[in-house]
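Chapter review: from sequence to fold.
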Amino acid sequence: MSKYCSVIRVLCHTQPKLFKLKEKKANIMEIQVNGGEIADKVAFAQSLLEKPISVKDLFAQDEMIDVIGVTRGHGYNGVTYRWGTKKLPRKTHKGLRKVACIGAWHPSRVCFSVPRAGQYGYHHRTEVNKKVYRIGTKGDTKSASTPFDLTDKAITPMGGFHHYGQINEDFLMLKGCVMGPRKRLITLRKSLLVHTKRVALEKINLKFIDTASKWGHGRFQTDGEKKAFQGLLKKDREAME
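The token string follows.
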């Protein structure tokens, strides 16, 4: 390869057994190795052969990264839901959730700018400049603690994350939203831009991370705080006995 190749790429795959989901088949991705001579790229790729790569080895605190993924799908939808067009009057013939006029006589075709019904969601998207707020490590019981909130608590809220469960591996906390539903695969990459703005270069010092239950009106940050307020349950007393 060092003699004949001009581009070096490595095959990487996920580890589904680490997170307790129904998925068993690993996702494979081809990643190009950049920088240096061809021989250096081959040596670097060989050094990582069959070795796990953690998220903390790739990204750093306060870094700006890009997120690539597929948005949440909504199937086939009409113009009112898809483009937010105004509904027609109540007595309109053959429906009112339509576009009244889709264009003039000439040009004798429908322009691309006219709202039409069709697929809504399940689109490939790239969102740039997501700031890394925190990089958590596996087994850290204080992953949600801050210098201003010294309570020993993990990042998983009480009752678990909606439709996901517990966080048992390394995690990344980003500012803003990420496309797609829960459990959908996303790709993270280094930012392609040279950042000079203050927003991108500032250091983040988190003061509080909310770990109250997301299933209802969460009042307590930890299980110990809840038991201290409500007292022990019957099953807890029986366990102690």
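Two observations follow directly from the output. The chain has a mean pLDDT of 93. Residues 231 and 237 are 10 Å apart (CA to CA).
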